[in-house]
TrEMBL record:
This is Sodium/proline symporter. InterPro entries: Na/Glc_symporter_sf (IPR038377), Na/Pro_symporter (IPR011851), Na/solute_symporter (IPR001734), Na/solute_symporter_CS (IPR018212), Sodium:Solute_Symporter (IPR050277). Pfam families: SSF (PF00474). The lineage of its organism: Bacteria, Pseudomonadati, Pseudomonadota, Alphaproteobacteria, Sphingomonadales. One of its GO terms (cellular component) is plasma membrane. Coiled coil: none annotated. Keywords: Amino-acid transport, Cell inner membrane, Cell membrane, Ion transport, Membrane, Sodium, Sodium transport, Symport, Transmembrane, Transmembrane helix, Transport. The keyword Nucleotidyltransferase does not apply. It is a multi-pass membrane protein.
Amino acid sequence: MQTGTLISLAAYFIVMIGIGFYAYRKSTDTSEGYMLAGRNLHPAVAALSAGASDMSGWLLLGLPGALYAAGLVEAWIGIGLFIGALVNWIVVAPRLRKQTEERGNALTIPEYLANRFPNQAVALRVTSAIIIVLFFAVYTAAGLVGGGKLFETSFAGMLPGLGMSDYMTGIWITALVVLAYTMVGGFLAVSLTDFVQGIIMVTALVVMPLVVMFGAGGEGGGSIADVPVEGFTDLTKGLTLVGWISLMAWGLGYFGQPHIIVRFMAVRSVAAVKTARNIGMSWMGVALIGAIGVGIAGRAYTERNGIVVDDPETIFIVLANTLFHPIVTGFLLAALLAAIMSTISSQLLVASSSLTEDFYRLFLRKDASERERVNVGRVCVALVAVAAIMIASDPDSQVLGLVSNAWAGFGAAFGPLIILSLTWKKMTGAGAVAGLVTGAAVVMGWIATGASDGLYEIVPGFIAAWVAIWLVSLATRPEASTAGGTEQA
């Protein structure tokens, strides 16, 4: 059984690496090509790439696991995310696409901020790059944890461990395949693989809950109304106001996720943004409903059939191994790897782009050639991956926990900063730095003190950053030009 599944996964890996080499021949001659695919992404590719890189392993592991453990009340996370993503496409996407090109053809978010506020250019580039690399190391680790859990759960004892556990072997396999196509093909490879992976993910999320409820396993796990847990299908069971705010606040994170908003910078034109938005939001709605269905229907099935699930975050894997033919199981596990790898590759590339453009070129080699910048970017991809592997080495790590911390860090640090830099002409460079530092510091402090057990850390971080930008910008307003909204150099 497991041999057929392994064959399916091997075929999936080959396709992903093949796309990487295709992209290598198309768009890696220049730094703009390597980092943004020449700003020429088709709307459908940009849309599914944004969605797939956004959702990560938490869509098939963390969210279904939360629903499996706590019931329908956890669906508020998905509702908050959908609203946040929609507003992000409407408010941020067209403005960021236009302004990053107009302001010095910026290739990274830190570079855009530096061009927007030249008086604070170095401080903004360095600070934002540090935050990007720091939180992306944690975020990438969350994806690798998902890969480790997949191989540990599905192929226990079958993998050549090389002295490592199945968990660590899974982490290394996941990391090496992602590195293969990301380092070689750059942003175009990441975007094209995201497109394919997005299609695989949404197909799996539609098929699995339907099979659980109505397929061969339906007799044992059909209706989700009979789960023997009080209030399991109640959307408000045990929900407090603070709890509801924390769940809905996940949507605030969208405005500050560099690996998502960089897709807005790469779409072929401002006019194409609307098409990309419609495609992306349709994909996201179906995917979220499917993930919720996996968690709820999976709990119904396992309860009725006496199946013990030690880790709720593995419910998708358990169902894939239990209900499907090995070849189909391989497809479903490929969907999980697609969710994991699409996000990891995006995060590695954005982090390496910041290291290359905002450290290497800024301090070491200002006149680096296009080829040198591409090669340095490849090295930085590998360095960030190694740091993420070290963080992910703890087998007790929880995907949703790691993702929530990194999501909050980016959302609070960059969210208010991006929104206001695009929409408020009175914003100053000093205000930008204040918001960036305040948002990140409040999130990390909130986590360190354990306060996030009550209120999700993105809420105080986002509010504090917004207030800091507003107050400091007003206090330093004489620095700025009232006509153009851009500081004078």
